[in-house]
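Journal club prep — side note

Before the paper discussion, L.F. wants everyone to see what a predicted structure for a comparable chain looks like in token form. Sequence:
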Amino acid sequence: MVSLTEIRNRLQPSFTADQAELIANLHVEMHDQLVTRHDFAELRGVVERLATSQQELAESQQRTEKHVGELAEAQQRTEQRVEQLAEAQQRTEQRVEQLAEAQQRTEKRVGELADAQQRTEKRVGELADAQQQTEHVVADLATSVTRLEYAVKDLAKQVGGLAATAGSNLEAYASERIPEVLAERFGFFMESCGSESIECAGKAYEFDAVLRGTIDGRPVVVLCEVKTNISESEVRGFLRIVDRVRPTVAKQADGAEVRPLFFGYRAAVVTQKLVTGNGAWLVFPRGLVAAA
């Protein structure tokens, strides 16, 4: 008979220690009760089936543990995904809150724009009324301007008449004052004085005053230009005319000296220098101002 220890040792590779102990004890007890070979064969089959089931159970346990590990990993991934979704949800809620605040600001701004639009429409209405008033004023001004234009035309006619009168008066005054000034300054002895037209090269030139006389017995003809305000351009123009008629005048007056003279109330310093620089005389009512 196989010993209990040997039976236990044989069973341990396939069974746990408790199982091997149980089976070994059972085998001994059965042997002690004169178990037949047939019964032993059946018992061996049961044991083999039990060992097979144990092996299958161990493999199933391994598969279960593997599946549990996979489930644990899947759970971790799920928890990670849930965490990500939670964070995304927080960001979404934050964004929604921002959008809500932006919507409130937009509604407030729209309200302000609506108020501004009302004020603008009111202002436009006021401007329209003001425009109508302006148009009425402009129409009145146009009427006033028209009347003013007629008044200006009448005034121009009057001023023209006054200017002509003043010019005539100034020329008359020049004809009296110039001989006095020339007599005081140069001892001019006048023979004639008055406005005169002098022809030269088929053209007549009008002079405001022409004085004919003598200075120290020498014949002198003074050609006068009378202006209220004597300008440079007028001086240059008159000097050119004098240069044209000088030969004719000198010849007609037996070789008399021909002098240009300007008489007026005002003349700039540069104009005075232009006069004296061209051998002409400049006389104001108070007396001789410039002479070459």
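L.F.'s comment for the group: The CA atoms of residues 101 and 262 lie 90 Å apart. Keep this in mind when we get to the figures.
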